[in-house]
């Protein structure tokens, strides 16, 4: 492969340049072949030999973009992630070529991470990631030429979903299911920040804010009301974490995860083979998968585990730092009390708030 540095121009006008007419014949082979001309955004024209003269006036830009994208994506493992990143790369190239700004929907953490790594290798492409707050997991990307993307676009809106969740607490899945039940697809939603008894704050694409306000009236069995709030009004408390050290003979997934989640290695191997374990948000079914610093291991029903520093011991083993979120002893929004069997509950006691204000009167007998 050879390359020529050429001035910026439209693809269709490349063949008319006198310099190309003088230089290209020396690149031809003796056998009939075809030419593929690719324009990279760093103003480099890539010519793959063998070529033929009749192809000089043709520049197959879609094919050029496809070929370049495949090279950029080489080494990515997960097939679904590759397809998502490929679409984002092509979106970025189109935005840069047209000198406009385009936006993705909310991306999952692995797609976001891989997309940013790939896009940083493209010249004349600027990227801005926004999720609504600094610790956001699901973010949107704005991509475009640096001359066009000069500020952070307003592409994330926040909604407050409120209701009385004191006696009927709802989980992240309850809020997500209720919103998706209105007909919205997942990639239009960002993070959901639980607010205990008050409800939740939800990040969404701005164009669907009004629809959610009018369509969402219940989460679980709790009636709710929705309103728009500024991003600065989001209430988010970074999770408290604790770390522990574990010395392992290898960095196999089943060994490290069993230590982090405090389950037997046999049980962890079973969870892995059943597809209940994800590494960096990608399902892994092989117990011998190697773990490295920065990996996030998720187990269905058990939470997440982040891999911290990994150091070798003098005996050839591995000292692994395992970081887990600290759960509160009591769940916010849940009031759980154990009463004897001889206690009956009667709703409708009178209080200062008026008759039947959701207060419960206890009728019980002793002995």
TrEMBL record:
Which keywords are on file for this protein? RNA-binding
Upper lineage is: Eukaryota, Viridiplantae, Streptophyta, Embryophyta, Tracheophyta
Against Pfam families, the record matches this protein to: S4, YlmH_RBD
* GO MF annotations, alphabetized: RNA binding
Q: Where is the RNA-binding S4 domain?
A: 251-311
PANTHER family under this entry?
A: MITOCHONDRIAL TRANSCRIPTION RESCUE FACTOR 1 (PTHR13633)
Name of the protein in question: RNA-binding S4 domain-containing protein
Q: Which domain of life is it from?
A: Eukaryota
